[in-house]
Amino acid sequence: MPTHTAEALDRITREVRDLIRQGHYTAAADRLRELHPADRAEVVTRLPAQEREDLVAHLDVETAAELFEELDEEVAADLADDIHPERLADILDEMEPDDAADLLGDLPPDLVEMLLAEMEDSAEVVPLLQYPDETAGGLMTTAFVALQEDATVDDVIAFLRILRQQDEDEDVDIPFYLFVIDDQQHLVGVVDLRELVSAPPGTRIADLMDPQVIAVDAWTDQEEVARIMKKYDLAAVPVTDEEKRLIGVVTYDDIMHVLEEEASEDILHLGGVESEPLAEKPYWEQKLVEVFRSRFPWLLLLFVAGSYTGSVLRMFDAELRQVISLSIFIPLIIGTGGNVGSQTVATVIRALVLKEVRPRDALRAWWREVRVALLLGVAIGAIGFLRAELWGVDAHVAWAVSLTIFAVILWASTVATFVPLAASALGIDPTHISGPLMSTLIDGTGLLIYFLIARAVIPEL
Amino acid sequence: MPTHTAEALDRITREVRDLIRQGHYTAAADRLRELHPADRAEVVTRLPAQEREDLVAHLDVETAAELFEELDEEVAADLADDIHPERLADILDEMEPDDAADLLGDLPPDLVEMLLAEMEDSAEVVPLLQYPDETAGGLMTTAFVALQEDATVDDVIAFLRILRQQDEDEDVDIPFYLFVIDDQQHLVGVVDLRELVSAPPGTRIADLMDPQVIAVDAWTDQEEVARIMKKYDLAAVPVTDEEKRLIGVVTYDDIMHVLEEEASEDILHLGGVESEPLAEKPYWEQKLVEVFRSRFPWLLLLFVAGSYTGSVLRMFDAELRQVISLSIFIPLIIGTGGNVGSQTVATVIRALVLKEVRPRDALRAWWREVRVALLLGVAIGAIGFLRAELWGVDAHVAWAVSLTIFAVILWASTVATFVPLAASALGIDPTHISGPLMSTLIDGTGLLIYFLIARAVIPEL
Description:
The structure is a homodimer. Chain A is built from 22 helices and 6 strands. In chain A, helix 7 packs across helix 9 (109-118) and helix 15 crosses helix 16. By secondary structure, chain A is mainly α. Chain A folds into 3 domains: 6-139, MgtE N-terminal fold; 146-251, CBS-domain, CATH 3.10.580; 301-457, Tetracycline Repressor, domain 2. Chain A is elongated and about 90 Å long. A 3-stranded mixed sheet of chain A has the order 1-2-3. Chain A has helices at residues 6-21, 25-33, 37-46, 49-57, 61-70, 73-80, 85-94, 97-105, 109-118, 122-129, 136-139, 153-166, 193-198, 205-208, 222-231, 252-270, 288-315, 317-322, 330-353, 362-390, 395-425, 435-457, and strands spanning 146-148, 177-181, 187-192, 216-217, 236-240, 246-251. Chains A and B meet through helix 12, helix 13, helix 15, helix 16 and helix 17 of A and helix 12, helix 13, helix 15, helix 16 and helix 17 of B.
């Protein structure tokens, strides 16, 4: 199927909207059916909610099922809510079991119960519902091919041909890796389709298979699954239950989406935004109130924590009145502390995400960061001295500013090294330690350092 | 091959180090050879530079080639520098052409010339050297299988079996998709290996292939290649030259690494750290001076831009002297502006990275962000008023603070919406617009807003 650029999809979206507004739903549905399922989902996502609903009501069950497989989760759930349960059950039956389970996971429990009772293939989906979305069990499909060790290459190829003929109309669901199980469904080996196709006919699967299969438990977090597949260049990884029985397969396409989703969550977290439920929704689908809720708690927390800066300034009210020029450096000093904190926290979080640094490396990491901070502190401290001199302030004040910049840079990099490592040690996702949180932690303490140094250095105080 | 946890790899690293220090290089090399190539690279990366060099000198050419394929680029280049060119040429001959080209791209030009003259398979590698690392051409492999339309399924399977027998010892390099070309090497179709294996014998490739192949040009940026493969769930995408001739293939494993690399670069950029060359190096491999260089220019720029805050405070020196309590809110106000800026910039950058928002949507995006800002401004402004009252400042000052918080939140979200969109319109990677840059831009202007409001609201001024 041809694919389209963003501009072509804009044009097609306009065509589809015109058809819908003229009441030509069948023509709009036909236009949609010509598109690649991924492009189809993109066009539907761009429609306003009402037009989207009306159009989906006119799609045949198979096209609707393909559409739901490609839509972002939250968009799919909103849309599903408006479909009659009987029709929705038919659509769920047509969907891949893992996508159907994801959609069911986002619907209200009483509706799910009704749908499962109505569905024909609910047996494939029910076992998947027990696993959270973000685990191997939540990502895996249960529609996989498992082989017995005593089969031959010819048996398997003949079997795959039958499988394909049974389902002529649909995409054949043959994976790139075939897994080998024993009588108790225990995973005992893997055969790469590339080896199967090029093996001499008559070869026994037991002789062809690799018995050292890399597998994951169903409860493994999706980030860990992604790390393993990426590290070992796997196109698919088998999923086992507590008894090491094969229960599903996670494929590379799921993982590409996980990597994107995690990256997208990280961007939001680092900016101080709660990613739930925003990370799973396209920008224009996010409701104002959701956006507000994702930002307000952090902003409030940071505001309350930041009030501490006011308390510090009130403590040093007398000093500020006496040497008014001290105040002009306040934003610059806390800004520099915040900037060094952001840089350090970004570096440490990246290393934690890539598993290059672990909490027990804390001291070694701190020693590295503090040496960088020494260099930065001397350089920026010296420039700060010159800047203060250029503004013509008293030489003692210039010294206090310069020493404070040096000290705040050391302090900021220390805090920004230990906080994400401590979070990680406590089992908190370190990407939640945002740049804004770091700046706020450093602001108040930075001011304290400033006035203590000023008191020591400036004779009038 | 079995795989290992991080803890097991720690233990193995200690074993290997002990063997090296006792001079048992062959035993250390044997221990390494037992590991999966990905684990092997991890252990080697953890060794100190000198031990790493000594060990690699004792590896056979094939094991060394597998190791270089898995190592991070910068680590591989450092290590290659210490190997005799004749041996290095043998290692490069054993490597996959795309990995060999990547390694050559990181070596000094005169060494590359010598190596290419020495290599047996340089013809496979030379065409790859013209493409930058971060393009489809830089990622692709030239070792792919191309079919003619008039072949049959049996012909192809027979051919794959011969291919496999020719290279018994090595992993057979058969891809999951086979591409079909005409006499001029133009790409005319694609056959999925899963369809090939399950098709009735005798089927013609022309009848089996999908003629609508999704392909990319060799100069396409790697992020765009990743986006296409992710969107259309492709395990491989063919790469064509200007004349639409098939010249290579990019596979899912390359893309998983691209997605990780891009995410890792984004984390650094958003924290205000230049990612080159750090993003390609493990944390512990980064030299202090490189880390300094990646942070200092940004810190200096932000410091100089931040000095503007001092100039604003000097402009309003008289007001500060008259109403000293104004100064205690300075850090809180600019902190809140910076926090809102970070949140907004993270949201807008995420939407830009995912191509959900484009520069021409600027006004629509701003209207969205400003409505969220209105809600946040009212909420945090009201809390700011209470906070000021609790500190017992004059009611006029409390009003000025509260109104300023409201105005600064609107202003911060406006700046943070337009700046990344403008950067993107100008062809600058918007992830370079960091939280720290945003805070600094907002700091000075936020203070200006504060004092202008204070003058208008406080009768004494």
